Amino acid sequence: MNVEQLRAETPGCRERVHLNNAGSSLMPDRVLGVIQDHLALESRIGGYEAEAAGQEAIEAAYRDVARLLGAAPSQIAFTENATASYTQALSSIGLGAGDLILTTRNDYVSNQIQFLSLQKRLGVRVVHAPDLPEGGVDPRAVGELIERERPRLVAVTHVPTNSGLVQDVAAVGAVCREHDVLYLVDACQSIGQLPLDVAQIGCDFLSASARKFLRGPRGAGLLYVSERVLERELVPLFLDMRGADWIAADQYRLAPGARRFENWEFAWALVLGTGEAARYALELGLAPIAERVGRLAARLREGLRALDGVRVLDRGRTLSGLVSLTVEGQDPAALLLALRERGVNTSAQIREYAVLDFDDKRVQATLRMSPHYFNTEAEVDLALAALAEIIRESPRPAGVGVP
Ligand SMILES: Cc1ncc(COP(=O)(O)O)c(C=O)c1O
User: Fold this and answer.
1) Which helix (H) or strand (E) segment is 48 a member of?
2) CA of residue 352 to ligand 1 center, whole Å
3) Is the pTM of this model over 0.90?
4) If exposure means fewest CB atoms within 10 Å of the residue's CB, which of 108, 122, 297, 318 is most exposed?
5) What is the 139 CA–ligand 1 centroid distance (Å)?
6) Ligand 1: does its nearest atom lie under 6 Å from the Cβ of 161?
7) 316 alpha carbon – ligand 1 mean position (Å)
8) How does pLDDT run across 175-203, given as a tens digit for each residue?
């Protein structure tokens, strides 16, 4: 991987040490260019006309996003964000009173809120499968719960937002396939960071957004839908004129493929940007990307463990590029600001983002650092030095500490 060239293609590298790729990564100039060109075309010839003129490029976006996931273009729906993808999928299952959603202790906050909302409104039951001792959901426990509880849906977040965990989505997928249970995977943090293959994972739905490790734009997401889902005619609760044709006063006909999970109005510029980001990642190769992200994150964890008062919180058999930590006696939100002043971007996570995980770890808030392949070892060391300096400059008052 030619990191120097990749950095030259990433304007943001010149201004900041960006260690918030789990929040929103830096777009390569190629991705930005595709978006700007389409917006310029829309402003010149009209939005619908630009869409017609861009048909080939739009088809290429479906094709290349599908290639990234090992799927067919007809199995990809574009959406506004990962959460929109997720709710489209959830709403298609037709959950009712007594139906069970089996999920994990590390699923994303918005997913958990949606499950609770379904519980409140429809009487859906929600069960969290237990973790392995080393962290991450226990696939065998998922199998036992499936046999005992017969869930309508198993939902697993691949790489949680709140720690460095990678959940074994393929092992859970194998159990779901064995029992023919619908399986929804949140791959928002893994897309663009780790190789993904929907056949190997065995999922029915996979949701993601473009702006994170994929390095696409904000405000763009996608959903993969399996042939099983399409054949069973599972469709979102609120279909619109893109998802179906209104063919008689009391009848509609479903659109082909995953398009039935889309809405009519699209920011096509962002769809094109997502396609370009997928091509960029494919050209680099997901295995080398995963390897480099893993190496930078390992360097970061090692350096953090050597700092006074720092506790690295990541657990699990396999770790991702998301590094979570606390510094004794320091508020992560204040650390974020102090690091930002030194040109280092990070993220602060609070208990409300991950109640189960944070309560298990007995923390109220954490600092998250998430390097990508375009970060350098020197940047990681600079961030460590900046954090060490901040800790030195603000000695904690005796007896006061954030656990
Ligand atoms: C694991 C995970 N899932 C889902 C989401 C939601 O993505 P979006 O904000 O694009 O809806 C996030 C965002 O941080 C995330 O980290």
Assistant:
1) helix 47-53
2) 14
3) yes
4) 122
5) 23
6) yes
7) 20
8) 999 999 999 999 999 999 999 999 999 99
